[in-house]
């Protein structure tokens, strides 16, 4: 069974899609797993740690043969605040896949609020006057006028974490 360390549909849906296409016939379930980092991780290290902790927690679930951790982070540079995805895929045999996905520049006013300590989800909800946008289109869907929604953003990141499973001969296990 594939266990995802989240119950957010915007994360479960892309895992179901990709795993059905690539590996076929595996049941996918989401469980709440502590990320061990802040609700809104800042920078790559914290975001990777959150994704890795979620994947490890997911793999510890009874019956799990795969554990997946998907964590979104925000990082700041001279251009502003960037939202990006990190995926960690662990298989029971010790094989691991990791990817950092694409990134999208947040509007300056949104970036400033996240820099001041707010969580991105509620800030985006307030901006568009809707609830729980992080479970649907996500910030990326809102900003791209739905051309790239959160499911698609995650699908792409997940695909990029799969090479060690797709080309195992090129990624020897230690
Ligand atoms: O239920 P979980 O798995 O925790 O899903 P999440 O969306 O809350 O958690 P993430 O770890 O993916 O993201 C960290 C925070 O960044 C925010 N966030 C990330 N991506 C977002 C998006 O596309 N749209 C809105 N908020 C987003 C959200 O508020 C999260 O609390």
From TrEMBL:
Catalytic EC class: hydrolase
Subunit-level organization: Homodimer.
Pfam families named among the record's database cross-references: NTPase_I-T
Co-factor binding details: Binds 1 divalent metal cation per subunit; can use either Mg(2+) or Mn(2+).
Gene3D superfamilies reported in the protein's UniProt record: 3.90.950.10
NCBIfam families found in the cross-reference section: inosine/xanthosine triphosphatase (TIGR00258)
Family indicated by similarity: Belongs to the YjjX NTPase family.
Entry keyword annotation includes Nucleotide-binding: yes
GO molecular function terms noted in the UniProt entry: ITPase activity; metal ion binding; nucleotide binding
Biological process according to GO: nucleotide metabolic process; thiamine metabolic process
Annotated protein name in UniProt: Probable inosine/xanthosine triphosphatase
Catalytic activity, EC: 3.6.1.73
């Amino acid at each position: 069974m594939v266990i995802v360390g989240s119950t957010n549909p915007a994360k479960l849906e892309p895992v179901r899609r990709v795993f059905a296409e690539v590996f076929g016939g595996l049941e996918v379930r989401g469980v709440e797993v502590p990320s061990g980092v802040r609700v809104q991780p800042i920078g790559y290290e914290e975001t990777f740690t959150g994704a890795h902790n979620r994947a490890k927690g997911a793999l510890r679930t009874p019956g799990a043969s795969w554990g997946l951790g998907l964590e979104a982070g925000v990082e700041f540079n001279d251009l502003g605040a960037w939202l990006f995805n990190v995926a960690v895929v662990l298989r029971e045999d010790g094989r691991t896949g990791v990817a950092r996905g694409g990134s999208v520049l947040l509007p300056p006013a949104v970036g400033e609020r996240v820099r001041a300590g707010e969580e991105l989800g509620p800030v985006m909800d307030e901006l568009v006057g809707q609830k729980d946008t992080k479970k649907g289109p996500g910030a990326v869907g809102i900003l791209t006028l739905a051309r790239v929604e959160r499911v698609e953003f995650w699908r792409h990141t997940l695909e990029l974490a799969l090479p060690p499973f797709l080309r195992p001969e090129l990624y020897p296990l230690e």
